[in-house]
Amino acid sequence: MKVQKLIACINSQFYAGVPDSQLRPLCDFLMDKYGIDKNHHVICANEGNAVALGTGYYLADGKIPVIYLQNSGQGNIINPVASLTNDNVYAIPQIFIIGWRGEPNVHDEPQHIYQGKITLKLLEVLDIAYFVISKDTTLVEVQSVMQDYNTLLKNGKSVAFVIKKNALEYENKISYKNNNLMKREDIIEHITRFSCDSPIISTTGKASRELYEIRERNNQGHKYDFLTVGSMGHSSSIALGVAINKPNEKIWCIDGDGALLMHMGAMALIGANKPKNLVHIAINNASHETVGGMPTVADEIDLTSIAKACGYPYSASVDNFDELDKQLAVCAKSNELCFLEIKCAIGARSDLGRPKEKPYENKEIFMSNLKGE
User: Are 241 and 228 in contact (CB under 8 A)?
Assistant: First the structure.
């Protein structure tokens, strides 16, 4: 189905959400039509943030917002959906468009498999009516469903369209770029030179895949790295937990700007605890690159000042390899909590591979190395 037909059928003037590769046609359409426009389209820090923003839109105008997300973000919407927008509370209607990763009987990555199994069940538990759109879904079917949905929406209930793989089409695929010069894979290669045999906790997406391939090329094995393949935004908290309990080990966290923004409250917790053995690195390309490249707000804010305000004793930002190596050397030798922002270009190799081991196997070798086994 062409995404324009779905959008016309829904007939909403406001969209908020977190980009998803399964929803790439929708995201590209919204960027083409609106760009980033606070009156019509906002890319949010996390999915619960989008629900709250949509709530404000509804309260101000009485119009129904559309909230888009990957199904992995259902966990982030549960609190506001159950305790705020539900018709037993404020009865604030919203239309969800959800990319269905890990759909049963469709091959996907390990972090999506269980989430895919429970996607529809979660909507049922949340009392959100849903309709699944596949490649064969017709406009007439969607129009019929939308008629039923309009009755539910008028009664303060939310509804959802669940989007299967390749169900939506948009002819204009947008290319995203910035003016930064350093490539993320090269940046991570430099980080591994300075981290030596210290543990690294890396964020979800292409950063972990690139770290894996670097270790493969260098014949280093994978015992030093915990590859956070799911749970976007939580790698820094995982790193904090490791750092607190392994005070004699230097712990490195490779974060991304989208992940850091998604749960930025983690920085306050890290700063308050001040683990002297933690280096928190944010590779910032101001982009949700792994799911298509749609922008984040990370180039509109000062991450180093935020880190300082959260209590990080040392905070710096770099945009070239000479400065990167100087700052990595400082962080490697430091005896205090460090934050390093690295300005990065958008883009990755087209032949970038994926880890061969299963996540639990990665966990086992990582834990064994931490134990000195």
Answer: no
Q: Compute the distance between CA of residue 53 and CA of residue 67 in angstroms, rounded to an integer.
A: 9
Residues 193-209 have a mean pLDDT of 96
pLDDT computed for residue 306 by the predictor: 98
User: Measured between alpha carbons, how far apart are the two ends of the chain, in Å?
Assistant: 54
Query: ∠36-38-41 over CA atoms, to 5°?
Result: 55
Helix, strand, or coil here: 165? coil
Biggest alpha carbon distance in the chain?
Answer: 64
Q: How far apart are CA 183 and CA 283, in angstroms?
A: 10
Reply yes or no on whether the pLDDT at 84 is more than 90: yes
How far is CA 83 from each of CA 47, 87, 259, 330, rounded to the nearest angstrom?
15, 10, 25, 46
Nearest 5°: the CA angle 104, 20, 94 is 90
pLDDT at residue 373, rounded to an integer: 78
Q: Which amino acid is at 30?
A: L
Assessment of whether the complete model's pTM goes beyond 0.70: yes
Rounded Cα–Cα distance for residues 99 and 270 (Å): 32
Q: Where are the alpha helices (DSSP H) in the chain?
A: 3-10, 24-33, 47-61, 74-80, 110-125, 139-154, 184-195, 206-217, 235-245, 257-262, 265-273, 303-309, 321-333, 359-370
- Residues in contact with 241: Cβ distance below 8 Å, sequence separation at least 6, in sequence order: none
| 342 close to 324: Cβ distance less than 8 angstroms | yes
With contact defined as beta carbons under 8 Å apart, do 238 and 228 qualify?
A: yes
* Residue 293: both structure tokens together: 């490249």
- How buried is residue 161: exposed, middle or buried, by Cβ count under 10 Å (0-12/13-18/19+)? buried
Question: Could you give the count of Cα atoms lying within 13 Å of 125 in the half-sphere of its Cβ?
Answer: 11
| Helix, strand or coil, per DSSP, at residue 342 | strand
Collapsing DSSP states into helix, strand and coil, what is residue 41?
A: strand
- Report the number of secondary-structure helices (H) and strands (E) in the chain: 14, 14
The dihedral formed by the CA atoms of 319, 207, 16 and 29, expressed in degrees to the nearest 10: 90
